[in-house]
Amino acid sequence: RVIPPEQKAKVRCYEFLNKTSRSFATVIKELDDDIRDAVCIFYLVLRGLDTIEDDMSIPIEKKEPLLRNFCKTIYKKGWTFDENGPNEKDRQLLVEFDVVIDEFLGLGKKFQDVIVDITDKMGNGMADYAKDAAYNKYGVITNKDFDKYCHYVAGLVGIGLSSLFSTSGLEKPELAKEIELSNSMGLFLQKTNIIRDYLDDLLVNRRFWPKEIWSKYVDDLADLRKPGNEKKAIDCLSTIVLNALQHAPECLTYLNKLQNKSIFSFCAIPQVMAIATLALLFKNYNVYTSVVKIRKGETVKLILKCTNIFEVANIFRYYARVIIQKNDSKDPNFMKISVACGKIEQWC
Ligand SMILES: CC(C)(C)CN1C(=O)[C@@H](CC(=O)N[C@@H](CC(=O)O)C(=O)O)O[C@H](c2cccc3ccccc23)c2cc(Cl)ccc21
Fold it and tell me: Which end of the chain lies in a sparser environment, N or C, as judged by fewer CB atoms within 10 Å?
């Protein structure tokens, strides 16, 4: 295929999008013309930031300025980064980051301003957390710290996306002002990922489960997977699933405000994957022995049924019932789980 030279960087960006997240890349490509490139570049800039934050082989002295300055770095034509560890998942993205920068600089100024603002806040939030975690190994302490960390790495993404959607004109200007709802969209996804990734994170000593939650059951987060602690592990899991579940009604409220069909599907698909994952994680001891993921077939079925709020609300109600059925009257959180699921079932 002959690619005109000015299209080369854009084609390369979409190739990176396909590599960094196969199923989600197709959803981004379904977005309407006026918003697709901005979201693609936003996604890749965030991926670049995440690749630096995730790389435990980069010393904090180097990592901190890299994160804090990333909002300025994305204006530096030609900038690339080749110092990630050899097995860092998306290291090639940073090795060829100049193509992302070229495409970023080609975006409308309003889109650039949103992406820079979020990158600035996220980079500084990640740096604050990385520095703190480097010095005290406990990681996330209180439920408030949990919400703060998830705000930095995911809530800000929702806030940025709402601004991009409004800026494109495909959604009302009011959407950019829905900070709380946009934040909850990110917290719901990120908290579900953190519950799912308990084992992977523990093995690289990354501790995101709040001490305020696990310290009620064990002396250390790692004790949850020890033989003999099975009941404690399951009851602790209920507590953190309950924490994530509380964002679900706000996600439905946010989705109900969207008017553009391609934006609705783009936002709804990760949310229905998250509620399905949460239902699978609840009462599931495999969280402590493997990474629990919903089956491909279920994913495909969910994606096909994400075209309007009625379908999405029905999917949320279905999984709320699955959680209710798994609920156990001997679980200290039995009532709170019932109430949280009730709020999803009554959502209208
Ligand atoms: C941390 C995260 C949840 C924000 C990551 N995040 C998402 O998880 C992706 C989904 C994704 O990447 N899925 C991967 C699987 C995986 O990586 O776990 C896939 O291959 O399907 O979706 C989110 C995302 C999409 C739509 C609306 C959102 C509103 C608020 C916050 C995030 C929103 C995302 C949108 C953008 Cl622009 C950037 C990142 C994300």
Answer: N
Phi-psi category of residue 21: left, alpha or beta, with phi > 0 → left and psi -120 to 50 → alpha: beta
Residue 238's pLDDT is 98
Contact yes or no for 312/271 (Cβ under 8 A): yes
Closest CA to 98 of 35, 50, 48: 48
Q: What is the ipTM of this complex?
A: 0.97
Indicate whether 44 pLDDT > 90: yes
206 is catalytic: yes
Confidence of residue 215 (pLDDT cuts 50, 70, 90): very high
Residue 169 and residue 175 in contact, taking contact as beta carbons nearer than 8 Å: no
For ligand 1, atom 16, the nearest C-alpha belongs to 21
Among 202, 153, 184, 200, smallest CA distance to 51 is for 153
In which residue are the tokens 């599907």 written? 265
Whether 198 is catalytic = no
List the catalytic residue out of 12, 91, 206, 225.
206
Is 165 in contact with 34 (CB distance < 8 Å)? Answer: no
CA of 189 to the centre of ligand 1 (A): 7
